[in-house]
Amino acid sequence: MANHSFTAPSTGAIQLWSGTIIPTTRDAPTDAESPSHILLSRSGYVRKLGAGIYDYLPLATRVLRKISQIVRQEMDAAGSSELLLPALLPIELYAGTKRDLDYGDLLFKVTDRKQGIYALGPTHEEPITELAKAAITSYKQLPVSLYQIQTKFRDEARPRSGILRGREFIMKDAYSFHLDIDGPGGLNETYDKMFAAYTSIFNRCGLDFTAVEAEAGPIGGSASHEFMVNADSGEDTILKCPASNYAANVEKCEIGPRPAPSKGYFAGDPSGALDEVHTPNCPGIEEVAKLTKVKPQNMLKSVLFAVRSSPEDLAKSGQEYILAVVRGDHDVNEGKVRQAASVKSIELADPAKAAALGFAIGFISPRAAVGKKGVLLLVDRDAALGYDDAANKPRFWMTGADKKDYHAKHFNWQRDLGTDPLAATPHNPTTHPAGNLKATNNNLIVADVRNALAGDPSPRATGSTLITGRGIEVGHIFKLGTKYSDAMGMSILDDKQTKRSVIMGCYGIGVSRTMAASVEQNHDPDGIIWPTPIAPYHVIITTLSPSHMTVARDLATQLSTLGVDVLIDDRDERPGVKFKDADLIGIPIRLTIGDKALAEHAVEFKPRKSKDKPVNVPLTQVVARTIETLST
Ligand code: ATP
Ligand code: MG
Q: Which residue ranges have their beta carbon within 6 Å of ligand 1?
């Protein structure tokens, strides 16, 4: 279980509300939709300065400092040492890795007075490799792990949800260097240490999170995990197996063995004659379904990908395009497409180029791939059915009609594909657990190429099915391998004087995103509810008259000595306003000093989380009660 306990390393802060700026407002900015954006804006933590650019006001700065402190302690404990690299990076750094091109518009570029071009660092693999190349000259210096906490810049296409996806944000990024993958000092050892450090970090921040298997993405590498804060508002879909500890991002999630279709793939008589229907003004499957009254699960969705490969690779594989076909209610999984087709990189095909090849994007049927050289037809196993075992009758399919604004009903794989190379191959779940079947001519593959869904069989526990949840990615650890060291020429002589590419790992945490993710997870209609370890202050003392300030200061001093951070709301405002603001900014405990309670030598005590009315606690006991509550 998470350790949310309060620890008191040093004297706590005492701050008067009147002495700082906490500009709370009733209304959220008009563009604010997500709870964290609304609440962090309304409660005076952040303020928008431009698209995806935010001021961090004093309260936010304290939260960021506390998160950073936890990150530092755990990274240091994991043997990583802190440094600070520039954010302004000469574009020449990217000469070897070409990431200035891969990043595309995401990379902010600036020009100096001498027309030199610089990038604002979106992440720091290049500068750290450049530094390590110079500083690490002997294998005896390895392994090394370095980290920094720094502002990063990415010109996100859609900056949204305030600081959850900013164009300028704070990241902890770490990089490790190794001679080997396995064994003592190897990449895997450090990766496991980082996994443990991340687990401690998010536990200590008081967050409910899931570590999931993830795609390595454009940064490359062979293995990665994401740390997701569990929140219904999260952008990412995660799947979990309740019977094992398997959890994965939907981009990566495997599906366990499924029963084979009784008649094999593609087998089954036509459900009727092919019937073209006019479907104008239907930008998506939903609209087509509405117009034609055909359910999406009875449609085939065909997505054309262009293979991105070097001319040499292309000459070898001969594969230029992949037509991936899934059921209309399913989503194509790009990682699975790449894997099934054995290609490294793909992108959605350019509509003009596709049209020249005879593919009407948006209206493609599997037939369009037939007889086309260089086009692989990759069919998801749920889409490759000709017979409906459950209903015990031929499967009805509607596809695009290979021309704009037309669809075709009663598509039949055998009749309309003109060839059924797989029909004779009965599915064998033991030899092909994922259902991968390959036609002999290599132009047709049946495989699992769709996103996993709730209810799909678990890939790790027989009989168990996957469940879904939503998450916010706050951390990501990657095994990079030699991508950067090779591109930038970082090699080292080992003990046998053999030249070896240095093996790298990289490990990121969105520090500012973690603050917002905590709010997404911990709030109620009245405002933020901070987990104690990252709350800007632990206690807010609300005074109802200037005459209460002596008692307030005395209490604050006692608490501060014990390491408690105290905010005193000394403003000349109505009690209702002060209580509302206290709830809004989310400080874990409110102590209210009022005449009535004071007459009984008591103060009102109210934990932010509690729905109960405040209780009177004697002045002599309130410090102990506060510490006790903060510690649980
Ligand atoms: P995303 O998929 O959300 O765009 P990413 O996978 O591109 O993020 P990484 O390159 O893995 O991000 O960066 C490491 C961490 O930095 C992420 O796990 C995330 O917490 C944080 N991060 C990335 N982009 C942003 C952003 N635009 N605003 C705030 N935090 C971000
Ligand atoms: Mg990531």
A: 123, 154, 156, 165-166, 169, 171, 473-476, 508, 510, 512-513
